[in-house]
Write a structure and sequence with these properties.
about 80 residues, mainly alpha, two-stranded antiparallel sheet, 2 strands
């Protein structure tokens, strides 16, 4: 049976979660410091805050998914040129 190695930081889910997480933090901070006049333009809903929180929840779900179900890559013990 071939050995298996976890993808770790090279798992695409971690890369996607990192990018969405960065955008989520930026939107959350913008939503917290938003002026009331800008919130009133969106029918009284702080879209930046809710969008940022949604992105942070998405990030947490992706990281949890990657940690609970890691991608296992089989390691071939023979050299490739044989």
């Amino acid at each position: 049976m071939a050995e298996k190695k976890k993808a770790g930081a090279f798992d695409i889910r971690i890369v996607i979660a990192t990018l969405v997480g960065i955008y989520g933090v930026v939107l959350t901070v913008l939503g917290i410091v938003e002026k009331q006049a800008e919130i009133d333009k969106a029918a009284g809903i702080n879209i930046n805050l809710w969008g940022g929180i949604g992105m942070l929840v998405f990030t947490a779900v992706f990281v949890l998914w990657a940690r609970l179900r890691p991608i296992a890559v089989p390691i071939d013990s023979k050299p490739a040129d044989e």
